[in-house]
Design a protein that fits this description.
This protein is mainly alpha-helical and 84 residues long. The protein folds into two domains: 45 residues, no CATH class; 38 residues, no CATH class. The protein is 57% helix and 10% strand. The chain has a two-stranded parallel ribbon. The radius of gyration is 15 Å and the shape is flat. The termini are close together.
Amino acid sequence: MHPNTNTHRIQRDVAVRGRDVAGVLDQYQKFVKPAFDGFVAPSRRHADVIIPWTRYTVCLCVYVWMSVFVCGCVDECVCVCMCG
């Protein structure tokens, strides 16, 4: 688990969802990481744009998608936001 994702996920799931740290880490290992490795990571080779995770990623992804929509190349462009 990426350190920033780890911290955020644990803090959120414990505070907001009432889960314990062990449960959060177990869910990550059993479901989140395998799904990322199986579907998100392989899609990198098809992406026109890869946006690494930063505190501005959500805004940047929205901007890229809006730009793609406006230019009319929705079917040709693939954007992958790597949120870890």
